[in-house]
Protein 1
Amino acid sequence: MSLKNILENWSDYRRTAEDGGHHDYEHMWAMAIDLNKCTGCNACSVACYAENNLPTVGKKRMMKGQGMHWLRVERYWDEPDMGGDEKEYQERGGSFLPMMCQQCNAAPCEPVCPVAATYHTPDGLNAQVYNRCIGSRYCSNNCPYRLRYFNFYSYYEESWPEPLNMQLNPDLSVRDKGVMEKCTFCVQRIRVGKDAARREGREVHDGDVITACAQTCPTEAIVFGDMMDKSSKVSKIWAAHEVELGKHEQHKSDPDLRGYRVLEGLNTDPCVTYLERVREA
Amino acid sequence: MKRYYVMGMFSNFEEAFATVSDIRSHVIPGVSVDDVTLKSPIEHPEIEEVLGDRGSPVPKFTLFGAIFGICFGFLFLASAQATFLVQPQGGKAVVPLPSNIVLTYEMLILFGVIATVIGFLINARLMTRRHPLYSEKVSLDQIGVMLELDEKNVDPIKELFKKHKVLEIREEVSQ
Amino acid sequence: MQTKDINENIAWAKINEDVLRSMENPRMGYWVAVVCCVAMVMCAVAAEIYQYQVGMGPANLNWPHMWDLYIATFVFWIGMSHSGTLLSAILHIIQADWRKPIYRFAEAMTTFSLMTAGLFPIIHLGRVWNMYWVLPYVSDRGIWPNFRSPLVWDAFAITTYLTSSALFLFIGMIPDLAICRDSARGWRQKLYTVLSLGWQGDDRQWRNFRKIYLLMACFLIPLAVSVHSIVSADFAMSIMPGWHITTFPPYFVAGALYSGCAAIITLFILLRYFFRFDEYMTIPILEKTCKLTFAIAMVWSYLNIIEFAATWYGHDMVAKELLIAKFVGPHAPYFWMMLFCGSVLPFTLAFEKLRRHLPTMFVVSLFLNLGMWLERWMIVTPTLSFSYMPFAWDVMWPSMVQWAIVFGSFGWFGLLFLVFVKVFPSVSMYEVKEMVFHRRHYHSSALANQFHRRASDPKPGDEPSKEGA
């Protein structure tokens, strides 16, 4: 068996060397988030808590920075020298940036994990194996987006007192202390979608899989889909805004195109494109 | 055949070296400098001048250990990486050379050091019984010149020792 | 004023006696020190049990501060371990014989600080009970550690370094253990008989001993450099501003030698005072150590300046922001303190009057080490506080759990060291004898002449040959 593995791996490697962009991905799950549409309502975050068995940690621990919000809506306020005013709540309101794991294709978290608990799946996802994680937390330190969260306590003991434990999603585990976790692009839903498609003997169509955040977003700001499927909605948005995977700098024909990826210059090659918010000057 | 062991204890190192020097120049026929074992409280690099260069094979062990460390280290890592399905995903190298160089380097040193220590233990005849003639004064400040002799040479050697102001002569006969 | 490294006419019996005396009859003060150290370790054990039970939360670690004092102190202890290697290996190879009376405890320090350092990556794990997963053992599931991760390199490097330095310490001690064996009684005699491996001072043994000592020294120097470079890779291999810095490996190695030398000065003065080793740990030797420390301090300061200048000149917005935050942000008092202790205070080592004043040197060496500990903290934490995402900017101060474990690590190190000085000779007897012997005979050409077989060889004391110059 191992000889077969060696040969397979090496032939993969050779193909990679011959063809720089070669990947053996079955899917490339990706997102496009239109910040023009985002109202900062946090429904996506709530949906994520419900879907992924995220523990609520309470105000005190949240203030200490020990929360578990896989999807957080970051709020930014304009600096006075950039047109904002001095008030705490500015009249034009804040800017919102919903951040979930960017599922980088060149993820900085992957090579640093000492036990290979985080790795890349053939779906183009950046997976986290809770059972393998030993909690060295290096991945979180090396995530420029700071999108990995650590179980500082056995949160499950207090988060779902009886009978709230009945609300837990049976499709995925409840994590104990000492384990790193992060947004999985609702991998359990992807699994269900792929299984259903295979049972029916067909390819996975666009719309078969939808993440909890995308499903919940009242303004449909979040679009989720497969980048390998050129007809999917998400591919079309990426293409329309001239954002491409595998680049650390996007050259656009029209400066008005709004698509960008966060911290693209670090060459992490994230799978989430944001469409810039347009405001009056 | 009976073997006689004679050891003279000297407190003056120069006298001890002169004794060995005399033996070297065949003052006593039939006794060669190769029969001399020097028991000393300190290390004398200059003693090789009189004892002759007896050599040490420890570096060979080191070389073997280091080469083994490189080969084993790299093959071990490479085979582990090549059979570990999860690790090489996303078009990255199956056997990443930069990190393997670091790890192989550590393995080189680890095995080199272990082989050196083993070579030392073997070549220095450690972990064996002490010679019955061993004197505790050797660990203090005296130097012992021990010879393995035939019976006829015992007395001339004692004479030689006495000429060089020996403090104490110890003898041992083995079967 | 004492100007000689060592009194050449010191009787060898006295050397044995002085060193062996230091290993016997612990006084009251010794037991008080042991009890203090045990109490400190107990603090850490209690904190670790609590942390084990509850999780990493009570340590006040948070998002984004996933690492803090544990890793900083880990780097600190690894750094301290470089002192012994410097003294025993580097100075051995350059034949600086003044190292001989003081290298033994420095080497012990190497081993013990590694034993302390090795605990921290384990303590800081979220799931301590699975720590063996970073080791490359053959698992029936075909799972291996990720050899790309600098943490796995750490595991390899520390294992190698601990093995090698412990062996080096032990091998270098064998002739001394034989001395102990010959004069000890009771359980000590049994222990030393086993440990001295039947050493009897044969020329064969000494010859091989000289070889192995040199070979191990040759291994240890690149090993020490690689170990701290690998530790620096934990940071330099990441993509974080303030961590991803090219000069980190030499910077870490310089810092390591620096804190190691400072610790040597501290322990030198303590041992000299408590064991009355005035004749072996002499002021001129301390002076030489101080000069060495000063030189290393200047290298360290230079690398600091390089780092600041390169960050500033490189004009990476995020890295620059972090640099400014270090100088004026919430960590600024500690950062300035580090710069003061690390770069300004060592100038006291440049003055002969101060160098020769033991209390001053003792206090200065403690502050140098404080500076070096702060350096590691200032490497680890500000980067976590101020990285790429402004939303994740946060300042966190460590909790008592972390402080207790850091505090306890000093107790653990102290305890190991206290046990060492009473069980093993903390001054190398045979090498002090060698030093005395060679210094006494350095100018005595009579002995040398006697054994020179080739007439053409230059004799010691002669003018060096002009031929071929």
Protein 2
Amino acid sequence: MSKVLLSGDEAVARGAWEAGVSVAAAYPGTPSTEILENMAQYKDDVYATWANNEKIATEIAIGASIGGLRAFAAMKHVGMNVATDPMFTVAYTGVNGGLMLVTADDPGAHSSQNEQDNRLYAPHARMAMLEPSDSQECLDFTKAAFDISEKFDLVVELRMTTRVCHSKSIVELGPRQNVPPKKYESNPAKFSMLPAHARVRHYKVEENLRALAEYSETSPLNKVEHAGSKLGIVASGINYMHAHEAFGEGVGYLKLGITYPIAENLVRDFCSKYDEIIVIEEGEPYLENTLKAMGIKCHGKAELGPQGELSASRIREAFGLPGENDTYESPAQAPNRPPVLCAGCPHRGFYYSLRKHKDKLVAVDDIGCYALGASAPFFGFDAGICMGSGFSIPIGLSLALKAQGDTRKAFGILGDSTFFHSGFNSLVDAVHQQADVCLVLLDNSITAMTGHQENAGTEISLMGYEVPAISIDKMVAATGLAPERVRVVDPIDQKAMDEAIEAALATEGTFVIITRRPCALLREVIKARAGRHCEIDADKCKGCKACMRVACPAMKFADGKAEIVDIANCTACGLCAQMCKFGAINVVGGAK
Amino acid sequence: MTSILLTGVGGQGTILMTKILSKALVELGYDVKMSEIHGMSQRGGTVNTQLRFGEKVYAPNISEGDADIIVAFEKVEALRALPYLKKGGRIVMDSHEIYSMPVLTGEESYPSDADELLKKTVGNVLVIPASKIAEKLGNGKVQNVCLLGALAKALGLDHVDWNKLIADTVPAKMVEINQAAFKAGWDY
């Protein structure tokens, strides 16, 4: 079979296809997004779909499993929080077709709001857990997950981390296994979790976990490398790789592939052969506490701490190991390069307008590209917690502001995909409670931050089929909010944008602003503006820097004049031109 | 084991370049691992891709002082990545300048002499005007494959049919220009 270089995400998709999976669902979230994106290539064999949120994705997979198909849902670590409601209960019911839930954790919070360790969910929810350490294992463990799920009647959590998801390594490909649907038969005692059934199933899932623990003792997914040394290392996932690089060949390794339930005899046997046991793990002391509860003396977390991503050098430093290379002192300071809103980003128009009214409002944001409005020069909002919360936190905040005589209006900000994810529920509550808030829905017609995934508002599905786009405007109207309390505007049009914010400020109670302009990076948007860009007439430019206040990465101020530094990058949105009192900026070029 | 850090600004095409390079390394029989973090940093921020190859590679990512070669798609990104370079290591860099927001707004200054400073500090620095070469060839985007040519030469990877690998990887109408860019980088 052929060998190719695949990322962990690509390898999970491939493994699922090879395992005969028939249904796959997800809500996009870095670093898990590419798993479902890669499932779409197998659309002849697999129904692959984006769901509006992780709970729905999980429930679609559960339905397929109950019906007898192999299925999985994939999500980022915080996405699993959304899926916990069905997850904790389907763990009791077990499966018909094999069922896998993939969590992609993000130690180091490269693109997340926290560093939670989802290994803790496996013992808490009573699921089996596998942890791959490279792309080959992503493929192999995915296949094993479905066999384990069906053999032991358990839900399997496949736990990945950013470095596993987004690293590429060599993978050997195999053929697709033919897995016909298991016949669906009504079985309420197993799948309908009434209290009487749940109490019985709780015994059953414990029994199934004990059976898997016994299987785990001899499973090839766990690996032992003895070295006759005094020191033994226990690790799982990517941490095995970091540990191996830091400690080298001279020590023993126990690499656990099945990290729940733990193969206790295997662990005891390994640890008994070493004077000292160090556990190398990112995040919580999950393995370390497990070993300590078994009465095994070990350490690791005290030296490494629970924060951030591990690397060989962090391990070397923590344990005083040799092997650090000498490097160079930097001869100069590199200027900072923070991520910024792209040239032509519709959100820039909204944030610029919001900034003008800053003393009259307090804003809360959500999860998406618009989080880039947090920094200079916009300082767009004061708080941001999780998906959907941009429309509900303002409800509580408005009460707190009122309680202290603060007359500023609470604003909430979220995007179209976030609205479909859970923001709609919050909107319904705001309207129903007649909350004194302004909710701004930044509709750029795509799930942008994670790299342009389709959502319920787009006319095309993950598998490339035409589907009906759900109307955000009609959803807002369905709440019964009076039409004069709703504005739909182009956020780049500063007059309309300002008027909308001013109308919201002048209106007591709930107000909704929908800013509508597609993401500047969408292919059809790029095509439509081909050849057009802004041009600054140097003779008319007075050097007042008004245009620089919109912080567009296509512009520069040098030698007392503004200029477009990057014509290819300029989208001709014309926001800068609206700033210029002297008519120095014009949109030029293109067929129009 | 050889460790390469590729650094640039979101959108410069480090991914395509490492794709072609890693295909070559797999063909040559090496164990290869490549790591990159994407997500928020794509939006005009610094993007690092790390590539390691040898008989057996464990960790996919490079620690400070680990890189044998830094390939910089942008001048100050070479400066920023310097702590990753091993003493005695090399830099292959484009003299291209991309100004970040603090520079564009005049809050911070751009050290345009970064290449000269790096030459003094590191010694083994190849500065190649890959962006300019790419633009002359007719498409600024092939900067990445021009740098790949320079890197392949620096690594001594001459037993590889690069033209075929390029043809296998890029869209048909882009093959010729990419092959020309590779040659320009190799010959520089």
Protein 3
Amino acid sequence: MKYLKYTLAISFMAIAGTQRMEACGPFYPEKPEHIKMFRSCSPELESQWQEGCRFQDYEKEENCLLWQKFTSPSIPLKDIEKVIYTARLSDLRDLPAGSLSGNKFAQWLCLPGHAEDLEYVSIAKEIEEIRDHMADTWYYGYDEDEEHVRLDELMRKCRTYTGKRHADRYALQLVRLYFSAGDFKSCRELWENTISDMSANIITDMAASYAGGAYYRCGNRDKAIELYTRSQDIGSLTSLKAWEGTEEKSEYTDLRVKQLEYTFNRFPNSPLLSIKLQEYVRNRESFVYGFEVWEDRDFHDELKRFARKAVSSEKCRQKGMWLYALGYLYYLDGNMSQADTWLGKAEHADATPFIKESVHAFRILMDAGHANNSRDYRRKLLRHLEWLDERMKTDVHLTPDQEWQYDNKMNYSVSYWQDVARKVLLGEVCPKMRQSGNTPLALQLANYATNRIHQLSPLYEATYGGWNDSTGYEYYDKIIPFDEYRKTWPERNVFDFTNQFFKEIYTAKADDAARYAEKIDRPTSDLDRFLNDRSYIDRDYLFDIVGTLYLREMDYEKASRWLSKVSTGYQSRTNIAKEGYFRLDPFRYQSDKTRLIADSCDYKLRFAQEMVRLDNMIHSDAEANRKAEAKLRFAIGLRNSFGRCWYLTEYGHNMFLESDYENNYWCWYTTADREGFKDNTFAQEAYTRVDTMMKEAIAEFTDPEKAAQAQLEMMNHATLMKEYPATQAAEYIRTRCDNYYDYALQKR
Amino acid sequence: MKIHPKLLLCLLLPLALLSCRKSPSSGNDGANSIYYWRTTFSLNDAERKFLKQHDIKKMYVRFFDVDYDFYKTNGEVIPSATIRFKDSVPQGIEVVPTIYITTKAMQKMQTKEDEYAAKILKRVNAICRQNKIEPKELQLDCDWTKHTREYFFRLCESMKQDLDSSQSLSSTIRLHQLTQTPPPVDKGVLMVYNTGNLMEMTAENSIFSRKDIAPYLRDNRLAEYPLPLDVAYPAYGWSVAFRPKSGGRYRFHKILRRTDFSSYPELKEVMPNIYEVNSTINLNDGGEDANFLFRDHIIKVERPTAKEILEVKRMIDKKLNGKTHNNILYHLDEAQLSHYSTHEVSEIYSRH
């Protein structure tokens, strides 16, 4: 029981995912349309800034260009980058064989006369690897450990280099080592006596940053700012508040825009601008989508003004980014015509491939605003999805043990392209397709948006929480293939019956769900085929849902047809079966847990088939008592399917928990009486039908004994005694009850 | 030279008698041992005296924990709370580096046990080198269950392979683990403490209770346990604070290091070792972090008495049915050990 309670608790939390429970952030959108989508910098760039306030990409690019200048213009930059930034020391030692054998830069390094270059690259790489290793939490340094000893040797090599070719690079290695050892005096001396006389390039600029740090630590802020500016070390300039004193000349009032201006005026193409822009536009998204209560309209108006200025600057090589930001800000204002204008300009402006992709995603979103069921739009949608899918495939780097799978279900941000798919499809296209009458396509798209990521990252971190006889409560995770999780994991499947696709299909009409399910085996268009290939189309799962929706709509004929296509073993995969349901006889007036049905196999199908049989009898049987009995049994089945046997028409009923803080546990409540279904319109319709049928059935009995037996089963003792006093049923009551009052037990 | 048969007998008999003594080769070397479970290694005079007085030859020193927490450890299995040696280990005492691995970390190591075994060992060796320790044994401490057993065992196997041939590997064995296959190590240390439910006020004593321990020792489990076993007994106490909840019941609040409350007039001893808080008190008065308890809170002092420990020890000795073993105390801390007399400690250590 405890086991059940905990599994239900977990499931509830999953179901209640749309109702945020955290007392404090981060907050994530309840609605897919509120997913934040503006993107002007990569997570890597953002983390480079957050962690070290440096932009390695710029340095990397310049450094590779310098190497190319040193070596040969015929060596591709990507080959240089691979050797300098990706390869390990062991790869260099394997040269000319090994993983770098086809690399042109590596080949060049191996040529006679280039030993000096190879030696430098090897030393730099070894220093980097040792420093990385020493920064690892598992590293525990001790005096004279191999890392320290080797680093001292390498430092000596750098110091004693007498050549000219790599003097600046060795100096950079040295200044770095001094700095990380806290030897700021040596840093400054090296700068003053050696590096400052060298010609300016990316290497000496990088060294300037370390020297700047050393000066600052020795109290010379002005020199530090000078060197940081030379090295474009905006992080350090920011931390020194270098813009102080320049603000009064600004035409802007907001400090954030002033800082942008300061940065832009000095470094118009700095990656910091893309980071700040993303931060500020996403702030606006937060307000528009209800995560922030404070509207910063003046700031965003100034931001738009500044973006226009940036676009008009000749120094700006990122016009596309600023135009994209302008378009998106207008989109967030609800000004679609301005949004479209700026987006159009962004599409034709200079931008990095990264920004171009963001712009393309924005175009898909804007187009989704006009989604309709026309053939033209469907064709365009397919093109968009093909493009989006390629991005999703390339960008998925999700590992199963990072708990993103739960986030995926709840609109948490897990992967940018997944966010785009959900925002565009679930937030925009699906509702419009439903409105325009193409619910099957809405379901196809919802399935794709929900499940595609699990095809691309097919491992799942399954969670077990339960009671163990020897150790008490136990909780553990196990990483298993997603398919195994869905098919053989003995615990609850916390994904398939709570995700956004399930929500969509569960709120659809049964006929629409059926039309969707038919498309699985009979796709009629390229779009159908595209979506089928990239969705979760387990027939048992889908057909069971369709059958259940027909049970909910009381269409037992169709329910039987769909449920008969579900394999017999599937029932055990559902959470309801795992929780121990499917055991009550749905045709008993009173539930009786001591008399559970022996064989609950194909429970829903058997129920549907019996309802069909009874319905036929009601309409065709000429014998009044048999017909009345069938009607009564039908009514009881119908009532129970929206009552104690709710699992015939639902996948979870009144799954609410109340936290008993005092007693430190969750209390599980379910109500299977009519009160518990008061918001269920299908149930209300069913109850009206049940009440009518029961009345009719009682009235149609011609045999008083059978009528009395029916009253007895329904516990209507007073009526029985009053209306049928001469029957055996009345006699039965008379011998067992002193008062003939109606117990009214479990009457609904 | 001819040797007289009687002389030969005189020479061989003592040797034969000596050979009848239980063999120490199983790892039970007859030395008194103690755990050291603090994050800074520093010994005061009383602790040094304790080590000398009880002829402690082996110290199981917790080097670091291996932990995992999605948020706190950035989603990685990492070492934490690494020990800092302010003092050196007294001469003649063997240090057994002991690594505590949380169950969550153990789960996360699955499929990467070899990698983590190497990482742990490298780190242990580095700490040893820095502090001039030459370990002959290494101990892993993990509350593995049947679901993490497989991973822990793989870690042990890998660790054993990486150790020098002169080094051995041991593991703590919790009472509930006695029913399961033993880990692939050279020796186990049966942990006979933390046996009860800390959260439950009605529990007799969460540190040590014969009632909690006895059921685990059924069915000749100890005598038949396939590993050589030493036994670790508690020599510590703490207090557990509970706060009231509805229905006259209480809910676990926190653990307090202090066990002497005689100087607090706000506390009333309502039963032996049970105190009721009459008005708000700060148990850390003068300290940096306030440690408030409020009216109607209950404090339960838990500290096993030597009598209780010796009673269980007799039971365990009997259940071990003559299997050679050493007794270990958990843990070296003057404030805790001062609650036990020298004689009592000697009794716990004694191997009758």
Protein 4
Amino acid sequence: MAKTIQQLSVFLENREGRLDEVLKVLAEKDVNIVALSLADTSDYGMLRMIVSDPEKGRTALKEEGITAMLTDVVALRVPHATGSLSKAMHQIVEGQVNVEYMYAFANGGDAAAVLKSDNPEKVIQILEESGFGVYSADEAYRANQ
Amino acid sequence: MAKVALADWKEQYRDAKIECMSRDEMSALQSERLVKQVKNVYENVPFYKKKMDELGVLPGDIKGIEDIGKLPFTTKEDLRDHYPFGLLAVPQEKIARVQGTSGTTGKLTLAAYTQKDVDVWGECVARGLVMAGLTSADKIHVCYGYGLFTGGMGLDLGAKALGAMAIPMSAGNTKRQLMCMEDFGATAFGCTPSYAVYLAEAAAEAGIVDRLQLKASINGAEPWTDEMRRKIEDILNINTFDIYGLCEVTGPGVAVDCIHHKGLHVYEDYFYPEILNPADQSPCADGETGELVFTTLAKEGMPLLRYRTKDLTSIDHSVCECGRTLPRIQKFTGRTDDMKVIRGVNVFPTQVEAALLSMGGGVAPHYMLIVDRENNLDVLTVMVEVDEKYFSDEIRKLDDLKAKVGAVLKQALGVAVRVKLVEPKTIQRSEGKAKRVIDNREL
């Protein structure tokens, strides 16, 4: 079973109310947002989300003419202990895998660091071999419940 | 039904005598018609009498087509000044139809037709339809707008003259267009090229391309590129033909291209083309780019002498591979008034389109140019749509794409541009003439 999870990525033009429109579409379709990161450039924004049902979210947005895609990412399980993330990151660097971006969320027991890499399978392998766990899709999509 | 390869194409002519006439015979026909027309406008249109008198030219000075350079020009402003019926050469009772231009600024321009003018118009469009391989058995889906705009009516009249079925859809409502196209079994359609691309994309998206019976499309009213042609032809598996016209002269059907796509054949027995140097209005040689100017040799309602179209092109009088002797005008390199001078460089919107298409993916050929002036310096911003297939969640990849687009455009235009990536399908597709440039400079 693949241990990557799917992130819903949305291209946002820098227009007034565009983020609001996206969030409204997801709310109306009952797609719950677990985690969110918004990167901005001078022209456009990139909204990246972990949601309760990524495919449903993508379809709903597409119907409204909003460009969205699903991206495979890894949700690293980070124990609430100082230095956990540093240790995990060190292992990834040692494994010579490139991380494109990362954002984190914390709900209950452990925190999660969402990682995008060219080689997610290798990231998972490195993490598991060094004693870290990753969230399964089911766990990640419902991490806030 | 499907696209026909050039090797398998069987050329047909609606009027082989005219379309393949020798140059001498054509000149003789044009001379006869011009002499008659000049006499007609001198006697019946006060505007032309005044203009000719000012130049000291009398109808008797015009002995043949070679004397056309002695005649006065007509401009769009002249048409506006004599709006609506000031340039008629017949009483208003003889007018069977009027059509007008979209008129983006101020008053519209009106053209008036007698019944014979309407028949000639239909005949010219029908010649083009036959050149596109169509016969009386075809069903022609017209999604040009009907109304004052000549697009819808022009194709309709052509279908009528040909004896083919006209399906008068008019513009808009793409879903309904596709439904009717499929249900009625249209074998050809006519609309602007940008809308044809949009329709083709929509048909592909709806998964109905295989259920359509199309074999050809007739696309005009705005400039388009070979890349757009390939896109429409590849998606729909049809042959496409370029049609040109302007309402002042008659409407679509002034010139149409053949399967060889080496320029648009001008129906010069009715519409005499000149290509003139924009600087001094001296005649250009074949192959030289200049302003296209038309004289309507046989028009009754509102005949025009040397009407300046502001379209820039060149002409080729050599015999075409299709067998026609009708001269061919090349794709327009722009309009004298669409051209933007940015930091001293002449920029035409079509260059941007060609450059985007030449990238072979990444961005869609839909764009908007915005010209601003910041600190006394012209700034050209090009808004382009990211192709859905190339959309990435990584900003680095989108920025690479943006840089690549910027480099390609700078190379093509000779001026640096700011690229702004926008979401797919957000730039307006046009059902009439696409507005591609916004100039915010206060000059």
